[in-house]
Every structure is written in structure tokens, then in C-alpha cells.
Amino acid sequence: MNDNDISEKMRSEMVKNAHYRMDESSRMISICLDQIGEKEVWARPNNISNSVGNLILHLCGNIRQYAIASLGQTQDTRDRDSEFSAREGLNKKELFAKLRDTVEEAKSVMENTPVSELIRPREVQGFSFSGIGIITHVVEHYSYHTGQIAFWTKQLKNADLGFYDGVDLNVKNSDT
Question: What is the pTM of this model?
């Protein structure tokens, strides 16, 4: 196997795993949205915290800015302040559709990003990242806010969200 084949295999594996993690976050957010009411989607635990609706808008803005605009080399049109200032707006179904569409577009960009763009540095939001750094940021940022959404949903409902119902999480690692 030559270096180009190895690089392409590594690119493909990284993208596949990023997609898996993003799909897991989407799955968990969907479960949370199913548990809360329309009014609760815009409820805030206090004046300095964000609602589930704000967090979903924020995720869409961040994923669009990093993955779609920067990695995909399109115009950055993000209005970050509006993500946090909203107090109402889209309903649960509309919010999840916006998130799902944003994530799918970002995954498409990742899938079509050549190795040369994964190692090229660029400026995003005042920070310098390679394409690999952008993908890493998008995945970890999505996961971070998914955890906040899950925590707030648990606070609202005082219930286990069942993210891994039917899965034995005590299975030991194996060499495969």
C-alpha cells in the first residue's frame, strides 16, 4: 500500500468515525426532544443559561461555520448572537429538522474533503485549525452541547433518558 492509499484510508476512517459520533448526538437529542413539551424547548434553567432551543440553534450555527463554511469553503454567514438571544421561535419538529439538515450537510462536506484540505490550516472564529482540527471541533462541540441538552432534559423530567436501553455497557473489550 502506498502513502496515498494510506492517507485516503485514514481520511475515510476519520470521517466515518466523525459521522458515527454526530449521528449518536443527533439520536440523543431526538430522544430528549421527544421527552419535553413545546414550551419546555424554550425554557431556561436561569437567566444566564440556554434553552434546548438555543443550544440547537447554536449547534446549527457552529456546525455551519466550521464544517460547512470553512471546511466546505463557502461564505461564513453566521450570526452567533442570535443563537443565544432567541426566546421562542421554531417548534421541536422544526428545530430538529434544522439540526438534522445542518448535520447531514456537514457530513457531506466531510465526506468530500480531500486529504490536502484536512491538513491545510485555516482561520475560523479567530482560531487556527487544520481540516482535521475542524472535524474534531465539530464532533466534540456537538457532543458537549448534547450533554447539556440531556442534563437539562433530565432536570425537567426527572427521568432516565434511556440512551442505551438494551445495550450491555459492561461488556469487556476484545481484541478484534
Answer: 0.93
Contact in structure between 21 and 143 (CB atoms under 8 Å): yes
Query: Mind listing the pLDDT tens digit for each residue in 161-171?
Result: 999 999 989 99
Instruction: For 53-71, write each residue's pLDDT tens digit.
Output: 999 999 999 999 999 999 9
The residues pairing with 123 across neighbouring beta strands, listed in sequence order, are: 128
| Residue 171, amino acid | V
Dig out the grid coordinates for 98 from the structure.
434544522
Pick the closest to residue 159 from 26, 35, 2 (CA basis): 35
What ranges do the domains of the chain cover? 3-157
Count CA within 13 A, CB hemisphere, residue 170. Answer: 0
Rg of the Cα atoms in the chain: 18
User: Which amino acid would we find at residue 60?
Assistant: C
Closest CA to 142 of 64, 39, 47: 64
**Which is nearest to 139 in space by CA: 9, 19, 11, 8?**
19
Identify the CATH class of 3-157. mainly alpha
Residue 38: C-alpha distances to residues 71, 95, 98, 123 (Å): 34, 11, 16, 37
